[in-house]
Amino acid sequence: MLARLFQAGYPVPDGFVILPTAFDGDDLQTDAWVQVHARLERMRASNKDCAFAIRSSALSEDSAQASFAGAFETILDVQTDADIRNAIQTVHCSRLSERVAAYSHARGMETDHAMAIVVQRLIRADFSGVLFTADPVTGNRRQMTGNYVHGLGEQLVSGQANAESFSLQHPNGKYDGPSALKQLARELYKLGSRLERELGAPQDIEWAIADRKLYLLQSRPITTLVAHDPATGEWNDTLAGDFLWSNVNVGEGVPDVMTPLTWDVLGAYWDAWVLIPGYRYLGNIAGRVYTNLSVIASIYAALGKKREEVLKIVEGLGFLRLPDDMEIPLIPLRRSFVYSFIPNMLALQLKMRKELNHSQTFLAENPTWCEAMRRRVEQINQNSELIHVWRNEIKPRGVAGFWQTLLVAMHLDNLATPLRRKLTAMVGAEDASVLLSNLSGEAELASMGLIVGISQVVQGKLTRNEYLDRYGHRGAFEFELAAPRPAEDPGWLDRQVTTRQTPNQTLGDVETVLENQHRTFEAAWHRLATRYSRKAKSIRRQIAQTAEVVRRREAIRSEYVRISWVVRVWALRAGKLTGLGDDVFFLTANEVIQVLGGDMRVTRNIAARKNTYQKYRSLPPYPAIIKGRFDLFQWAADPHRRGDIYDAQISRVAFATDTIVGSAGSSGCVEGIVRRLDNLEQADQFQPGEILVTMQTNIGWTPLFPRAKAIVTDVGAVLSHAAIVARELGIPAVVGCGDATMRLKTGDRVRVDGGKGIVSIIRD
Q1: H helix and E strand count, the chain
Q2: Which of 248, 214, 172 shows the shortest CA–CA distance to 11?
Q3: Distance (Å, rounded) from C-alpha 401 to C-alpha 399?
Q4: Tell me: the pLDDT tens digits for 465-491?
Q5: Cα angle value 96/97/101 (rounded, 5°)
Q6: What DSSP assignment string belongs to 208-274?
Q7: Whole-angstrom distance between the N-terminal and C-terminal Cα of the chain?
Q8: Which residues of the chain fall short of a pLDDT of 50?
Q9: CB of 661 within 8 A of CB of 737?
């Protein structure tokens, strides 16, 4: 890191490095000392009284996984050859100390550390200190914090002198601290900002000031804010900063713990969607996918929106309703960002229109492309060809599908959110929900295909092969690359057909249910048209426009999933050619490429990653909303934990009432008996007429919907795919309850009011 910083032009004191190969055991080799002495003389040439700092540089020291702060020796202010040689020996031997072994053991690392030695010109500092570009405890990015002492920094590290504290506010660097440092505070802020930006993570910086000049002595990632350990596969983006996270909507598509390959491919697509440089919108919290609401909120706050407006915007995008006292941590943004953001959004709007114009072509071509590519990949026998196909054909297709899906979803939000507000103001929430159902109209809604198609197979209107060609790529875990698709399981469709044909296993055939819902829609429309006759034509046109966009979004989403199946086939082929089998899903895409190229070193991490994956899967689903640093194991061990919201700053007790509040997913009010399903494997327990209560549903769950009297979920949103299907079928649904699965058990009797978004527990 010092070499990298020095070469990049940072004010790093001059020096050189003695590599581990220069030592024979603990002793510096004679010829190595000759070279060291020559370099010392070269540095003394410009200053005969030059003093030196002898510093450790052990493997893993100052890395993203470990700091080893103070564990290895550092010796300052040595001048003579004899003292320097002794100092080199002392520092090199410190790798064998008990404190290094203890720290290594605590971090789960090897205790045998190869060590290089850094020899630098000593800066006789007036001030020495550290600077954290984010709060190392809370992850707060709104200010930098630091400490300093007068003189050399060893006093600060060893605790020999009391340190002064200071802070530098984002985004302008406003200084708060002792006056002695004030004159150079601006330079320190600029240094910290540049390091964080160029190194891509919050930094722990060692610095010194001598004769009013600032020197950089080291920069390392703040290890407490490091989210990912590639060796073990552990990943927790709540450790990277103080943010507000939500898995509503996005969690529907990826409802379980992801394998590393799934996350890597999904994250690579989303990395093309950068709203604030340096901040990913999509995050990984212990294998589950979340969106960073702080990114959205910070942008609107920077544009001048007040907190109440920001909350409405966030909730309007389909995310879970937030408690009134919950603050959204904001990312500090410079005014220059605001100036650049508006033209960037205008450019995005233009891209949206362009992509939407191409969507029909994409929808028409994609099924044929995917089928041909799957067949082609299954026949590849050369590793180099498999690499070429990924880089030049499959990955670009995935990115194109991602943009199609994202932009049409944004377009739908732009239409549906204000329309829902307007309809709710005109006719109330329940009729508004009804009027935003029946969106398939005369055309088929892709997300209805799984259940309508099964009914058509039963009636002989569709062959089994035709059904699988159209819908066999969809399922409960359709974005998880390690999960087989229904089309890969010869018995899947037979089981669905058998269930549909069995007497008393349905509340009615799907066509009848759809006809009933259409009549409900027409009745609600008649009420609106009678009351608002002058506005009726305009409103009907807006509903039709929204319906068309919903149909397009569902169709594009289906084709995006079809591309995901191609990626799965590619990964399976890579596993076959490399001998890794299903272990290939515990590598990243680039690591798969490395293995295909003959480099097997990355496979040594597979066992540890599989262990981490199983640990994450053993935990209950995490809260839909997470604010601040989240210790998932501590949370899971708490018998009083809440499943809806976690707030690191505020302890929130579980509700004690008999009312569960969520969002109005689909209108209607019914009473019935709860059947809580923790996963889709329990589907055979679900009886007709029961109320389905589960963490979240997605397309894979929809074959169960015709049996349900009502649907209640912890996670979900008004415009989620499953909520749309529930509305199409006229099944009352309350989504985004947060903790329904923690408060309800199989056998409970409840009243579900889908129009109001309320579930009431009925006590005997």
Answers
A1: 24, 27
A2: 214
A3: 5
A4: 999 999 999 988 899 999 999 999 888
A5: 85
A6: EEETTEEEEEEEEE-GGG--EETTTTEEBGGGGSS-EEE-TTHHHHS-SPPPHHHHHHHHHHHTT--
A7: 68
A8: 503-508
A9: yes
